């Protein structure tokens, strides 16, 4: 049963804001939230996928015809009007055939690459509870979030605005579980604090190991500081089988842009401005007209 | 289900065969997941495809469609040969010790039981009975040694089903079969239980009923019926199909599985006598109450017009000469022998085999009424007829309310009846079926009143006591089903137990003297004086076994596990502390436990637990089945291989052969692959393709084939292929998969082709009707079509 048992509020306090200083963490606090996806109990029924679209009022793409045939999948993957989808992959393993069925959506990284890459102040926020969300009113449509995302999640609509799972922040902040969790018929989705979810995942992991899944593991990639979606993988040695990168981390380009490059960029920017200012006060404004006159 | 959904959590082993619950019953399947997570239960999936259930199972075996009885025969043989059965259980709770008449025999060479008439394609079933003594009691040998006792006959019968034969017929390697057989046989231990989950994957065969019979045999041998975590669980396909079945959804029944009058039952007395069995052992023989149920039904229908003088209006009911089941209806329609057809919430064109034959048949009707929530393929059947210009059928489409747009009850697979409230108004002119029925009835009645007719009495005298006769409410109907007293009812001592006019507390008080009225004896007790029990939502579970006695109302008598007396040993003690459920309290002289006892509470333990049978014991040998007392493997009517057990009788010998110009069957030289149809979780039959939100989930009709076959045919994922059978063809996008492997059947390589059914030419997404290609072959006991296991070939469609 998914219940939020955080101490204090689960409200919309902010932890991080793109291209801005972090808000003061002492003002508002909340526990990190998480959804545990127990792949060993997931039957791939897509009830979560349908419920997600319904709650968010989305009209997902209808993929019909020869060019748009994706077998058991609803389509090729995420779309601006599809925040999550079920991914199907068949794989022969030494233990026999595996039909890896994975719920795929924004992972809500603790250290979000999208937020780090975003140059527009406030366009991407991370709430105090760990949920990463977009604010379209501040988005400049630069697509940097996409290059910053290790999981290839944000999808841009015709207006050049990115969309993704927002962890049903509207429901969650009202004390309800996310829609996918509510809908799951086999209790393959669990919702609570990250701490609780890890305890539950470890308990389920023990059961899986007893059943002979020796390589089973919990997917909570440290490269992004852990994630808000954690997965219990029966074949933990092969996360790629489930469409999850083995080593999830933020692209070095983003670190570069946020680190040394940002410094260099700033120096260049401020240097240019300073130069222009000095020019102005020392030599006065450049007059283009003069040149013309000379030529005449 | 002999147990219920929640009870699956008590299982130690879950055998899924003939169903795909993860796909088709995802909400119920959570109990299987729970059993595994909480008790370490194993899930075994046996299916022609590695499906969604297989994806979360511990063991998966790929079986050839149509060879399931061979697998089951192998399991039965394994249990018998290795003495893995629960001996006490089969001695006392089954007919294992009964001695069968010497007129019964089976010839393994011909594959026929005694008494076969090849002309009529029928058996003389009277040859298969028990030996009875002078009192009419069945003779038994409690040592189980008599050569004609059921156990010995069964041992001999199934000795042919060795693991080698199983491998040859099913394609399941011997070692894999033995691994699973061992796990299954272990559940005969007193503290263990296996549950079996099946659905249409087992009923959709020309041997479907026998298949389920074979599981009944196995579960009885293992002592897994009547115990928590045991059972044979039929998972029903629609939210209320169980309710539909209970309320006479089939022509062979009246409500509550009573029988319609037959032409050879010219009096009520004859009819009741013919349907009231005589006990042949210490049995409660529950059907001895047949007369009480029947007369109470007639009283509910005809009230004061049903009197002892007119045999309680028995003659108001039509007397049938032969059973008219779906196959017969469709065939008669095709032959132009039907005038009109009313279809309520049924798409008979899409859901029955050989669409061409059905479409042509519908085109020969004068009129047809389709009451449905969408404009179905059936309503526009002429689009499936070659020359639609000749069709004169007048079609009336009455828009009906969807389940959430009306009040009523659902009876689930576990027999739990639950009230459902209306959520929204139906759109446009769509109406609740009760309104449609009320309007139709009152207008018919008024016509008869005005114009008379040949025999208006059954119409004019029908009880129709509803506040608004043009729109009865669902609760009013449920009250009528529950029944009420027409006079004060007294017990043996003369005390009044139910006052005149009061609703009945249960079917135990029904009388055959006309003092009770009850529209549906099986549901009686659902709406006593205290109120509608389908509305109860008490979630307490005192035993922790998932009984939830206060949640909804489970027929019969709010009993959650059927035959639960068998959860205790012959002396009445629980088989084990772990499976404790119902037991005999010696001091009080009655049965007590966590559930309503499925036996008269003060009946001593020597009475058999299977109270619906005159034996009181479960049937390992089942003479009433028309195709034989023991399940035998017969090939599907279209099979890629010969029947290696008895080539002379390859198919079920009593299946009716339809011979019209469209009843065509193919041979393996022309149609080399085995095909099977099925459903996907994203769609509900032919409905959800009308809705955008569900259409997007799996929008395209597709054909699943083994990767090896795709390579052979030179097709890749997304190519369009045509599945061709002797009846017709269906196109879809090909999905080569690792999840269907080529099988080796008796040395021959056999490919299986999988065809999901949900498309048609109406709706948001369109596609071929899968039933264009399925054969018009039906199980002889249940008249269910053979959708699983027919022959096809594949053709690449050029883009």
Outline the structure in words:
The complex is a heterodimer of chains A (296) and B (799). In chain A, 28% of the residues lie in helices and 18% in strands. A 4-stranded mixed β-sheet of chain A has the order 9-2-11-10. Chain A is elongated, with a radius of gyration of 23 Å. Chain B has 799 residues and is α/β, with parallel strands linked by helices. In chain B, the strands form 10 sheets. A 6-stranded mixed β-sheet of chain B has the order 23-25-24-29-22-28. In chain B, strands 3-2-1-8-9 form a 5-stranded parallel β-sheet, with helices on both faces. In chain B, strand 2, helix 3 and strand 3 form a beta-alpha-beta unit. The model of chain B has no long low-confidence stretch (mean pLDDT 97).
Main attributes?
heterodimer, A: 296 residues, alpha+beta, 4-stranded mixed β-sheet, 3-stranded antiparallel β-sheet, 9 helices, 11 strands, 18% strand, B: 799 residues, alpha/beta, 6-stranded mixed β-sheet, 5-stranded parallel β-sheet
Short characterization:
The complex is a heterodimer of chains A (296) and B (799). By secondary structure, chain A is α+β, with helices and mostly antiparallel strands. Chain A is built from 9 helices and 11 strands.
- End-to-end separation of chain A in angstroms reads 85 Å
The neighbouring-strand order within the major sheet of chain A is 9-2-11-10
Rounded Rg of chain B: 26 Å
- Low-confidence runs of at least 5 consecutive residues of chain B: none
Question: What does the average pLDDT of chain B come to?
Answer: 97
Strand content of chain A: 15-25%
Strand order of the largest sheet of chain B: 23-25-24-29-22-28
Please estimate the helix content of chain A. 25-40%
- The average pLDDT value of chain A, as a whole number, equals 89
Most extensive contact: A-B, 43 and 43 residues
> From the structure provided, what is the oligomeric state, counting identical versus distinct chains?
heterodimer
Count the beta strands of chain A.
Answer: 11
What class, by secondary structure content of chain B?
A: alpha/beta
Order of helices and strands of chain A: EEHEEHEEHEEHHEHEEHHH
Number of helices of chain A: 9
| Weakly predicted, low-confidence segments of chain A | 1-10
Task: Please give the number of β-strands of chain B.
Answer: 29
What's the N-to-C terminus distance of chain B?
Answer: 47 Å
Name the beta content range of chain B: 15-25%
Q: Rough shape of chain A?
A: elongated
Helical fraction of chain B equals: 10-25%
């Amino acid at each position: 049963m998914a219940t939020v048992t955080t101490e204090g509020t689960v409200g919309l306090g902010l932890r991080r804001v793109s291209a801005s200083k972090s808000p003061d963490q002492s003002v508002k606090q909340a526990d990190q939230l998480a959804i545990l996806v127990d792949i060993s109990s997931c039957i791939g029924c897509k009830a979560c996928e349908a419920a997600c679209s319904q709650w968010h009022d989305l009209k997902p793409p209808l993929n019909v015809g020869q060019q748009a045939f994706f077998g058991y999948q609803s389509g090729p993957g995420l779309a601006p009007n599809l925040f999550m989808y079920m991914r199907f992959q068949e794989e022969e393993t030494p233990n026999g055939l595996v039909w890896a069925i994975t719920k795929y959506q924004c992972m809500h990284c603790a250290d979000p690459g999208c937020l780090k890459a975003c140059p527009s102040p406030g366009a991407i926020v991370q709430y105090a509870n760990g949920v990463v969300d977009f604010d379209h009113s501040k988005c400049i449509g630069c697509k940097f979030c996409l290059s910053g995302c290790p999981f290839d999640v944000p999808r841009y609509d015709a207006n050049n605005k990115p969309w993704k799972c927002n962890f049903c922040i509207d429901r969650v902040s009202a004390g309800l579980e996310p829609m996918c969790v509510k809908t799951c018929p086999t209790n393959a989705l669990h919702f609570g604090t990250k701490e609780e979810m890890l305890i539950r995942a470890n308990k389920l992991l023990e059961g899986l190991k007893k059943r002979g899944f020796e390589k089973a593991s919990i997917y909570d990639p440290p490269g992004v500081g852990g994630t808000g979606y954690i997965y219990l993988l029966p074949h933990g040695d092969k996360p790629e089988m489930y469409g999850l990168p083995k080593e999830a981390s933020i692209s070095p380009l983003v670190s570069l842009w946020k680190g040394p490059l940002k410094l260099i960029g700033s120096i260049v920017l401020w240097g240019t401005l300073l130069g222009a200012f000095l020019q102005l006060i020392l030599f006065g404004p450049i007059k283009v007209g003069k040149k013309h006159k000379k030529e005449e | 289900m002999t147990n219920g959904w929640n009870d699956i959590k008590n299982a130690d082993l879950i055998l899924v065969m003939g169903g795909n619950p993860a796909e088709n019953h995802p909400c119920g399947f959570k109990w299987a997941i729970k059993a595994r997570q909480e008790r370490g239960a194993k899930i075994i999936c046996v299916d022609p495809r590695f499906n969604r259930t297989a994806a979360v199972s511990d063991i998966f075996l790929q079986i050839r469609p149509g060879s399931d009885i061979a697998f089951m025969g192998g399991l039965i043989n394994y249990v018998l040969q290795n003495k893995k059965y629960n001996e006490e259980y089969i001695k006392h709770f089954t007919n294992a010790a009964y001695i069968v008449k010497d007129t019964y025999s089976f010839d393994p060479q011909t594959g026929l039981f005694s008494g076969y008439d090849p002309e009529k394609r029928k058996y003389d079933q009277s040859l298969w009975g028990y030996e009875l003594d002078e009192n009419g009691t069945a003779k038994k040998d409690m040592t189980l040694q008599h050569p004609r006792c059921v156990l010995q006959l069964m041992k001999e019968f199934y000795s042919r089903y060795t693991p080698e034969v199983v491998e040859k017929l099913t394609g399941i390697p011997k070692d894999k079969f033995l691994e699973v057989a061992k796990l299954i046989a272990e559940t005969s231990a007193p503290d263990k239980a296996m549950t079996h989950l099946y659905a249409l994957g087992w009923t959709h065969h020309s041997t479907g009923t026998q298949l389920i019979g074979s599981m009944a045999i196995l579960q009885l041998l293992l002592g897994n019926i009547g115990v928590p975590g045991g059972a044979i669980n039929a998972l029903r396909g629609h939210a209320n199909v169980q309710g539909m079945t209970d309320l006479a959804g089939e022509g062979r029944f009246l409500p509550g599985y009573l029988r319609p009058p037959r032409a050879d039952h010219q009096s009520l007395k004859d009819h009741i006598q013919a349907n009231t069995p005589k006990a042949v052992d210490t049995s409660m023989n529950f059907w001895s109450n047949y007369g009480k149920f029947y007369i109470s039904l007639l009283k509910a229908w005809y009230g004061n017009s049903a009197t002892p003088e007119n045999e309680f209006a028995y003659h108001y009911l039509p007397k049938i000469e032969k059973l008219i089941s779906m196959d017969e209806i469709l065939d008669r329609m095709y032959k132009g022998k039907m005038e009109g057809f009313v279809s309520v919430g049924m798409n008979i064109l899409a859901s029955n085999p050989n669409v061409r034959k059905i479409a042509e048949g519908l085109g020969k009707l004068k009129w047809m009424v389709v009451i449905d929530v969408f404009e179905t393929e059936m309503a526009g059947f002429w689009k499936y007829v070659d020359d639609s210009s000749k069709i004169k059928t007048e079609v009336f489409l009455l828009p009906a309310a969807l389940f959430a747009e009306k009040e009523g009850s659902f009876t689930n697979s576990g027999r739990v009846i639950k009230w459902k409230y209306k959520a929204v108004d139906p759109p446009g002119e769509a109406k609740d079926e009760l309104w449609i029925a009320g309007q139709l009835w009152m207008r018919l009645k008024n016509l008869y009143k005005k114009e008379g007719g040949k025999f208006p009495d059954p119409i004019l005298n029908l009880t129709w006591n509803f506040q608004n006769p043009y729109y009865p409410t669902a609760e009013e109907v449920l009250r009528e089903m529950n029944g009420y007293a027409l006079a004060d009812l007294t017990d043996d001592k003369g005390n009044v137990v139910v006052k005149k006019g009061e609703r009945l507390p249960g079917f135990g008080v029904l009388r055959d003297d006309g003092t009770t009225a009850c529209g549906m004896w099986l549901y009686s007790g659902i709406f006593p004086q205290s109120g509608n029990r389908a509305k109860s939502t008490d979630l307490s579970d005192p035993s922790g076994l998932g009984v939830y006695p206060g949640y909804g109302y489970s027929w019969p008598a709010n009993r959650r596990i059927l035959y639960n007396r068998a959860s205790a040993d012959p002396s009445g003690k629980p088989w084990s502390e772990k499976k404790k459920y119902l037991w005999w309290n010696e001091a009080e002289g009655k049965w007590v436990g966590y559930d309503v006892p499925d036996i008269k509470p003060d009946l001593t333990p020597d009475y058999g637990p299977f109270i619906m049978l005159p034996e009181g014991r479960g049937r390992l040998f089942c003479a009433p089945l028309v195709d034989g007392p023991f399940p035998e493997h017969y090939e599907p009517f279209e099979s890629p291989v010969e029947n290696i057990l008895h080539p002379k009788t390859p198919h079920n010998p009593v299946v009716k052969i339809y011979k019209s110009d469209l009843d065509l069957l193919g041979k393996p030289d022309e149609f080399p692959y085995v095909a099977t149809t099925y459903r996907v979780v994203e769609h509900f039959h032919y409905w959800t393709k009308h809705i955008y939100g569900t259409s997007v989930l799996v929008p395209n009709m597709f054909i699943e084939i083994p990767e090896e076959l795709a390579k052979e045919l030179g097709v890749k994922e997304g190519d369009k292929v045509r599945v061709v059978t002797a009846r017709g063809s269906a196109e879809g996008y090909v999905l080569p998969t690792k999840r269907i492997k080529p099988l080796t059947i008796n040395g021959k390589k056999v490919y299986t082709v999988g065809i999901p059914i949900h498309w048609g030419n109406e709706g948001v997404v369109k596609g071929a009707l899968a039933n264009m290609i399925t054969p018009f072959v039906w199980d002889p006991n249940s008249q269910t079509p053979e959708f699983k296991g027919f022959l096809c070939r594949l053709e690449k469609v050029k883009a």
